[in-house]
Amino acid sequence: MNAFIASLIFVVLAEMGDKTQLLAMAFACKFRWQTVMWGVFAATAVNHLMAAAAGSYLAAIVPIEYIKIAASASFIIFGLWTIRGDTLHGEDKRFNFSPFWTVTIAFFIAEMGDKTQLATIALAVKYNNIFNVWMGTTTGMLIADAFGIVIGIVMGKHIPERFIKWFAALIFMTFGVYGLYENLPKEIWSLPVIAGSFCLLIVSIYLIARLNAKKGSHLPVCENRKVTGSGKE
Domain residues for 208? Predict the structure, then answer.
């Protein structure tokens, strides 16, 4: 159960402000939200099953001490990635199938190489439990995207994007730093190394935050919220 809960929480946090959450919100402007959620579920279930299987395979062939170090480092990277934020580059306009298949295909492709897919691989490596990680990350994606759709689209309210991003990023980086401290050899942690690592992390956060501040809000805005029963405007 630990693998399921951890996977759910980490993916909910990773998905906040992520490209795929923005994509779900953008599709909710055009199609019925129920159709969007079914498409998100289908795409995520297939994509994250592949990711969990890949992570479990890596766990079987890579020494466990290296796995723990790599997983911890990846959480710090995910935290910085969360601060940076994502934007859409026409992914919501790339396909023109039925509403369900448009959402499913676009979401599946957008998730390839995305932060939440990589987080699924890292979690599967860490826990070596395909089913629980797969169920946890899939459920987490549905929760995060439903939150974005309901708050941002259905209720027409602005998501507290900056607070959510920083909260999620700090949790990721805290777990990452703690994991590195626990799994790297203790003799590495001299005072200069600790101070240098801390300064490097602070500088990285500062630079990424400055770049992100220049972009402004990434949240999609619906020009017309009315959709027909078939899911099309």
Answer: 2-215
Instruction: Identify whether the C-beta of residue 173 lies closer than 8 Å to the C-beta of residue 75.
Output: yes
Closest CA to 129 of 82, 60, 217: 60
Residue 221 above 80 pLDDT? Answer: no
Is the distance from CB of 80 to CB of 204 less than 8 angstroms? Answer: yes
Instruction: Answer yes or no: is 55 within a domain.
Output: yes
> Which of 219, 211, 208, 215 minimizes the C-alpha distance to 80?
208
Is the predicted pLDDT of residue 217 greater than 60, yes or no? no
Query: What are the backbone dihedrals phi and psi of residue 173, each rounded to the nearest 5 degrees, phi first?
Result: -70, -35
Provide the domain count of the chain.
1
Give the number of other CB atoms < 10 A from CB of residue 220: 21
The torsion angles phi and psi of 89, rounded to 5 degrees, stand at: -125, 50
Tell me the C-alpha distance between 48 and 152, whole Å. 25
DSSP 112: T
Among 80-84, 102-106, 118-122, 144-148, the range of highest mean pLDDT: 102-106
Rounded Cα–Cα distance for residues 1 and 20 (Å) = 26
Length of the chain: 233
